[in-house]
Amino acid sequence: MPAIKIDQDKIKEAVQTIVDLGGDGIRNCVQCGACSAVCPGVKAGFPVLCRLLIRKILNGQLEETIEEVSTWGCQSCNRCTEVCPQGVRPQEVVFAYRRYQAGELAMSASAFGPQMSLYETGHAVTTDATAANREKVGLNPVPPTALQNKAAQKEIQTLLDESPMADLGIF
Ligand code: SF4
Ligand code: SF4
């Protein structure tokens, strides 16, 4: 039946796209939900992470979910990876999905601030609280990273200028 063939092609393409972008464990998912149960992103109100995000990809719904903002709520804690009985590494699937979104220039508005900060300072997230906490324990409020290294900042800017994100005009 032609309709089923189209769906199967779409599923194959969606899964392969995510595998190619680094989410190579996705085919092993059995939809048990253990990852979603421990995911702070899901608990914070970003439901399309872990099991549900994988379900949508396995259904071939890549285009339909391109504007999904939940993926940007991932905190990179890797709790999902620790509990997954199938070795899927759900965080890698989330990051692969983000790469797919970024490649299509479909980034969440909440991702723009960190991107601009990365371009300007070499760090995606810098806060006054972090600086104050470092001072409190006797450290230089500015960590010895790209924040203190103008040459590294310049290299990061060059990389970002060459990336698809430059097309967004946010730098
Ligand atoms: S790494 Fe991301 S997807 Fe995995 S549990 Fe943490 S917040 Fe959720
Ligand atoms: S814990 Fe692993 S197998 Fe279970 S739903 Fe999550 S990714 Fe799939």
TrEMBL record:
Gene3D superfamilies from the UniProt entry: Alpha-helical ferredoxin
CC terms in the record's Gene Ontology section: plasma membrane
SUPFAM superfamilies from the UniProt entry: alpha-helical ferredoxin (SSF46548)
Coiled coil regions in record: none
Keyword Iron-sulfur: yes
Swiss-Prot/TrEMBL keywords: 4Fe-4S, Iron, Iron-sulfur, Metal-binding, Oxidoreductase
Gene Ontology molecular functions: 4 iron, 4 sulfur cluster binding; metal ion binding; oxidoreductase activity
Pfam family name, one: Fer4_10
Limits of the 4Fe-4S ferredoxin-type domain: 15-40, 65-94
Protein name per its UniProtKB record: Heterodisulfide reductase
